[in-house]
Amino acid sequence: MVTPRFICNCLFALAGFPPLSCLASSNVVVQVVDGSGAPIRGATVQVRPVQGGFVPSMITDNTGQGNIPCDPGAVVRVQAVGFEPEEATLKECGQGLQFSLRPATVQTTINVIVTDEGSPTIAAGSAAQIDRTSARTVLDAVEDLSPSVYVTRRGVMGYGIAENGTGAVNIRGVGGSPNTDVLIVLAGRPDFQGQMGHPLPDFYDLSDVGSISVIEGPASVLYGTNAMGGVVEINPLQPGAKPEFRVTSSLGSYMTGQNRLWTGFRKGRGVYSFAAGLNYTNGDRPNSAFHSQDGSVGISYTLSETWKVSLDGDYGHFLVHDPGPVEAPLADSAASVGRGGFSLDLANSTSLLNGYTRFYSTWGHNSITDGFGSVDRITGGRVFETLTLHHSAAIDFGTDIVNYGGTAGTASGFSWGQHEITDAAGFVRGHWNPTAPLVLNAGVRYQTNSQFGNLAVPEFGAVWNFTERVSVSGSISEGFRNPTIRELYLFPAPNPTLQPENLWNYQGTLQFRPARNLTAWATLYYANLTNQIVTLGNYPNLELLNSGRAINKGIEMNLRWSVWRRVSTSAGYAFLTSTNLAPLVPQNKATLAVDWDLKRAFLHLGVQAIGRRYTDPSHTSQLGGYTLASAKLSVPIRRSLDLFAMVDNILNHSYEVLPGYPMPGVNAAGGVSIHF
Asked: Long-range pairs for 285-289 at CB < 8 Å and ≥24 separation?
């Protein structure tokens, strides 16, 4: 009798592998899940063996699992309709591979894998990769992901808020001031200050980060407002099959300390994790101290093969001092901010539907020594489902509803009152793979807003794989950003008649993979920004109007190359030209990173070269360009103990990111990492 097992044994024999009966004890289990941790059924698992040849594709079952033969060094590729593909190199037979797939978006037209030799799970900006660099915060790591991303800063640690606050993320010249055009998605929920509309960058430390990814260009179909320029997704670290415990502690120049703790384990159907962080510095200038602490917990429980429930929560507080510009220093200027939030998910996975229903809330209190104070909140719900119609076609659909706002006033008793805005939206996106080399995407979001009425934004994209080594793609997408409560009702010149900003983005990407260890890609883009909110006039006669516009054009080039077995490098360059270039945005940025496995140590070298930047909208003054070099050396003492040392600004260059705020010269830190 011919059985499926007999057929599989024949196919494996043709591929040069022993039959399944011989592999029963040496198979590797591949687990495929989505961002919420729900299993993905029907994902395709392909293996490229070390010695070449072909291994038949495996399809994951209802639990998101599939078995592959153990072949250390083989490349495993996982893809599922509606998700970005991922790759990993199989290290050893004693452990499984877990892939967490991200929803496909036309903005990430071609997913380029960042090879992580230290982890069997590959993700753009994974925790293992970040730990090897000298990044102190999430936004430090974000700058390394793309040459088109630029983040402002003002000292060794502490981004701050208010007028001289930094931590603004600009993607292809779009970010806003304050930073309202790039959305931060934290553990699946949008994160921004309810009245001001900007994120709180001092809360994004690395204590609970599993991976970071960046969407360049509009992502409003999937995320709505504030995603006009792009999205930074911060995903929490998930426990593996065995209990884990990690502690990292460092101390360096200016009494700058960072301490992180993370632990996670699985027991029965439950998964549990806990993280905490403590960061502080005396600052590189007088009155520039910073102190923060945070904690988070995660709990999930598998109810059945179909349903899983999870709860993630976090809370943190920071106190940041502002030294002021050197020409007008401040003696006692500080901001105190506390913020917390949670997400409650019910994930589902069946043969047809895979997705989740999420309820989330974020709240915060903010106090500045100039007397300003506010209390804000965000409360929302989201349903996201993927309907698999065929192995080559799927439809994403869902709905969002969010209410945000709060109260604000001064210590003297003045109050701007309480304001709130409600957004409700539905969205649908289709993914179709009509032929092996062609993938088509299209989507639309229809949104209604209690302040601005209704609007619809579309996106379209296509990828053509000429060969396994050459791919081209293109996309057209629209993004928007709603006016914030500050712009409508608070200061400096409230205008309740403001309308949403708009951006149309057109881009094309060519990816070339001449060898297995070398990948290069380049993207050309054209972005048309209209209806931008600008401040006109001089204080106290100011006015906010939808009168700004700009055309941003540019090119991004990236290369990733495993030079030798123990040496890999990545390089990138971005050039931007604009009819109305925003202040503090460089036209040129280049990045270079080299990772060298020294067997008994690991060395990371990073370089960023930043071009000149205008300091004002009228382009009357500039800040000079600068080059930053950093290094981190990690030395394992025992299997569970590492020592490390890192140096920033090795060349001791003098430079400013924010006018009047000189950045620190060469500075260093050393520490220890315990993990078991």
From this structure: 285/155, 285/323, 285/662, 286/323, 286/329, 287/321, 287/322, 287/323, 287/324, 287/329, 287/330, 287/331, 287/332, 287/333, 288/155, 288/156, 288/158, 288/321, 288/322, 288/323, 289/158, 289/319, 289/321
Band (419; pLDDT cuts 50, 70, 90)? very high
* Distances 541 to 206, 492, 538, 583 between C-alpha atoms, Å: 43, 10, 5, 22
Structure tokens at 588: 């040129």
Q: Helix/strand/coil (H, E, C) string of 94-128?
A: CCCEEEECCECCCCCCCCCCCCCCCCCCCCCCEHH
Q: Which of 32-36, 49-53, 256-260, 543-547 has the lowest mean pLDDT?
A: 49-53
DSSP β-bridge partners for residue 12: none
Closest CA to 474 of 211, 109, 141, 225: 109
Q: How far is CA 606 from CA 135, 603, 643, 652, 655, in A?
A: 10, 10, 19, 14, 17
d(CA 529, CA 581): 11
Percentage helix, strand, coil for the chain under 3-state DSSP, each rounded to 5? 5, 55, 35
SS3 86: strand
Q: What is the CATH number of the domain that holds 371?
A: 2.40.170.20
**Last-in-domain residue among 53, 81, 100:** 100
Do 39 and 388 touch, CB atoms closer than 8 A? no
* Same domain as 349, residue 309: yes
Which structural domain, as residue segments, surrounds residue 246?
127-675
- Dihedral of CA atoms 466, 467, 469, 474 in degrees, nearest 10, equals 20
Q: Is the distance from CB of 229 to CB of 107 less than 8 angstroms?
A: no
Measure the CA–CA gap between 36 and 212, rounded to whole angstroms: 15
For residues 50 and 398, what is the distance between their CA atoms, to the nearest angstrom?
Answer: 42
Contact between 649 and 666 under an 8 Å Cβ cutoff? The reply is: yes
Token representation of residue 425: 């939206």
Residues 353 and 488 placed together within one structural domain of the fold: yes
Find the CATH number of the domain harbouring 34. 2.60.40.1120
Q: How many domains does the chain have?
A: 2
CA angle 182/185/187 to nearest 5° reads: 165
The secondary structure of 177-190 as a DSSP string is TTT-SEEEEETTEE
pLDDT of residue 467: 86
Q: How many residues does the chain have?
A: 676
* Reduced 3-state DSSP string for 37-68: CCECCCCEEEEECCCCCCEEEEECCCCCEEEE
Q: What is the pTM of this model?
A: 0.84
> How far apart (Å, rounded) are the C-alpha atoms in residues 366 and 368?
7
117 found inside a domain: no
pLDDT tens digits along 120-144? 222 356 666 777 888 889 999 888 8
Q: Which two tokens stand for residue 439?
A: 């993938």
